[in-house]
Amino acid sequence: MAAGKNRKKSQRKERDGDPQSKEEEQKMTTQTININMGDVEEEFCVTCEGKIFIEVVRCKKLSAIQSPTGKDEMVTFPAGLICANCKPVVGDPPSGENEV
């Protein structure tokens, strides 16, 4: 009878996955990569060659009907970067801007 219980436990572990082995697997796949920022190419503004950029966001109003809380909400999402010196938007806007 004990063998039957052990078999059921092992079948349950196979079906549900062994949480301990999942934890170990996650630890093994997580790596820390050290990057020397002195070796990374710096971006410059194509207009004024400035090095300082400001992150900008777009805002949209979410009506109470659309909102999960049932109240009007302001939703923000990344819109890109602007040059701190001459102010044009730099690069392409992130994809999926119509998704919330």
UniProtKB/TrEMBL annotation:
Residues 13-27 have a biased composition (Basic and acidic residues). Residues 1-12 have a biased composition (Basic residues). Residues 1-30 are annotated as: Disordered. This is Uncharacterized protein. It comes from marine sediment metagenome.
